[in-house]
Structure of Molybdopterin oxidoreductase family protein:
Amino acid sequence: MTDLLLKYFREKEQKVQSEKVYNTQCPFCSMQCKIQLVEQTVVTRKKYSAQGLDNPTTQGRVCIKGLNAHHHAVHKDRITYPMAKGEDGQFHRISWDKALHLIKENFTEIQREDGMDALSVYGGGSLTNESAYLLGKFARIGLQTKYIDYNGRFCMSSAASAGAKVFGIDRGLTNTLSEIPESEVIILAGTNIADCQPTIMPYFEEAKANGAYIIAIDPRETGTTKMADLHLKVKPGKDAALSNGILKVLIEENLIDESFIDERTNGFDEVQEHVASFSLEEISQSTGVAEAEIQKAAMKFGKAATGTIFTARGVEQQTDGHMAVRNFLNILLVTGKIGKPNCGYGAITGQANGQGGREHGQKSDQLPGYRSIENPDHRQYIAEVWGVKDTDIPGKGVSAYEMMEKVHQGEITGMFLMASNPIVSNPNATLVKNGLKKLKYLVAVDMFISETAELADLILPPTSYLENEGTLTNMEGRVMHREGQRRIPGEAKHDWKILCEVARVMGKEEYFTYETVEDIFNELRVASRGGMADYYGMTYERIKEKEGILWPCPDTTHEGTSRLFEERFHHADGRAAMMPVSNEPSIQKEEPSEEFPVYLTTGRVMAHYLTGVQTRKTSALNARFFESFIEIHPSTARKYEIEDNSLVKITSKRGEIVVRSKWSTDIREDTVFVPFHWAESQNVNNLIPRELDPQCRMPGFKTSAVKVQPFTAVI
Ligand SMILES: Nc1nc2c(c(=O)[nH]1)N[C@H]1C(S)=C(S)[C@@H](COP(=O)(O)OP(=O)(O)OC[C@H]3O[C@@H](n4cnc5c(=O)[nH]c(N)nc54)[C@H](O)[C@@H]3O)O[C@H]1N2
Ligand SMILES: Nc1nc2c(c(=O)[nH]1)N[C@H]1C(S)=C(S)[C@@H](COP(=O)(O)OP(=O)(O)OC[C@H]3O[C@@H](n4cnc5c(=O)[nH]c(N)nc54)[C@H](O)[C@@H]3O)O[C@H]1N2
Ligand code: SF4
Ligand SMILES: [Mo]
């Protein structure tokens, strides 16, 4: 054998020797696609390839983000040791001991000077159930503060609060995805699943192949609306009115299920009276949707034997998001299309653990298992699980954005931030940024120096989805086990371990004595027992064996719950609560004016995830969209003298940004669209108002008014 051949074989052997295979779940959206990552070391370089693994929800599918997710986890910018900001304003490596000492010193000082509630905790929906649960306990017991909330406030709060009020329980999907193909009519309201949950699409494609009629509601044409048979191109923010139009036709054409209404609901008479008080013409005028189209949508939905409604952030991220969702639920209830096969509701959950993250206590008014922090019995129960007195559990705090206002006002002077980038994702972002700069001490737990972490005094390195084991609850309400098999890089620690260590230095070690992540899950099971989101019957062993279990699962012989509400809703009388919904929001939304003449709406593109901290690091994704843009109709663009592919200044009452124009006839002429994946001078949240939904404190990310003009740089 020649030297060359020998070398070749030796190298090949080396390759095989160093191949490692990791099973995991995609860290991004709520589909939670199962992924296998193969890591090969070729001489000194590592090569990765990812592929989908079969499971009941995604059946082996993965999208472009999942296939490329590992890039950020192995990125050179990843933080792998604690870093403190020095006098020079730069971050410097320090030891864990030193980091924990700094936290103890600063947090103790803040609470001594400014009071216990001067410290705040801000979490995220990508945390595992175990970390999300522990973060709630950490705030209340570890730091003894009432101020905790999380980014899910901007994501799930409208749908969650509507579900809880109408049905008495909030699980994203009332039925499993496997029922979609048999549903005859499907309404997709304010959701762009084609870009945001791509691996869900085959369920809908199968429904279409079976003859389903799909109705999409969106101010823009998207990959999702293109699949629809009918697209109601609504004006931003008018979903409550539009759904009232549909409801009016259903009731007045007698396309309702009277026995279902009588036996299973309350409040129908008020809804009937309400829809008689306006005309379809008024609805058509305010929503920009033709009367005939509203009628068609209602007739199709009302006449079908089965039907399903999905909503997402287009409907929900509004200052009347809670009520708008309630009105879509009114449509389901008057037609009796819930609690049955191939019928039901789905709030398309957003983040990896958008579902589990909202169940176990990261929310300011919530204790584990969806218990209420204001209910004395619930407090008592959780106090017993935690081994404290109920008086040791602080009361209700405020929502995510309101916490930022308290920071700005100087009432909150310290913050522990885990898994969010709030200066990019909050509305009224300039105020949020200025506020966070004033904090006496900000600790950020993040894999990267995000725009917010940049402002921190201390950054702690967490593990990524490849290393961190735990459970996450997908959009169906299916609790899945993520393996976390890769070796931890550098000195990174799991989020839950970081919480235990900080609690220890704050003198609360006895409440945080977990050896493994499974120990936390076992405590969560007990804490959730008897609550709305009951996980008691799940164990790691059962979850692994069944490839996920749908909650509620109240005992260890229970199979989990595929379909909700077959016999009763979860209110004490077993009935669902209907309620009339006003066409006009109680908190006025911005309408176009002479100064700010077009609607601005915001959202996502397929290649990027949220504030882009992870996906902007991935060249395969970033190459698809490396900067922000404004989607604008050519006639609107001409009116404001904006050329295609040119820089545009967008101004609102709050501020201005500069992005590139993208002419498109897909969007309404009175509306522009800007994604929110970029920061600094392209951060669209600098334009978004501070007003919140009065019921659930959701900001109005999807409706504001702006001016657009060509950007000419001053040199
Ligand atoms: N690629 C990608 N996928 C993601 C994410 C991501 O950042 N990138 N994020 C994940 C998360 S956390 C979430 S919450 C989900 C979000 O998933 P979606 O809610 O589907 O995403 P958005 O793009 O925010 O908004 C959906 C649609 O609402 C439309 N819309 C805007 N205003 C209105 C309105 O007033 N009424 C109606 N009816 N529609 C309107 C927009 O044009 C858009 O097409 O996606 C998840 N998946
Ligand atoms: N204008 C506008 N604004 C919006 C929205 C919109 O549609 N329009 N949507 C809103 C919605 S739905 C959402 S969900 C929010 C999301 O907004 P953010 O909460 O800001 O979300 P991310 O950009 O995902 O920030 C997560 C950060 O946590 C880090 N991270 C990721 N995984 C982990 C982990 O496991 N542990 C730790 N410790 N860190 C981790 C990432 O590196 C990143 O820096 O934005 C909201 N803001
Ligand atoms: S982003 Fe969502 S759909 Fe795409 S691979 Fe990840 S979990 Fe699946
Ligand atoms: Mo979200």
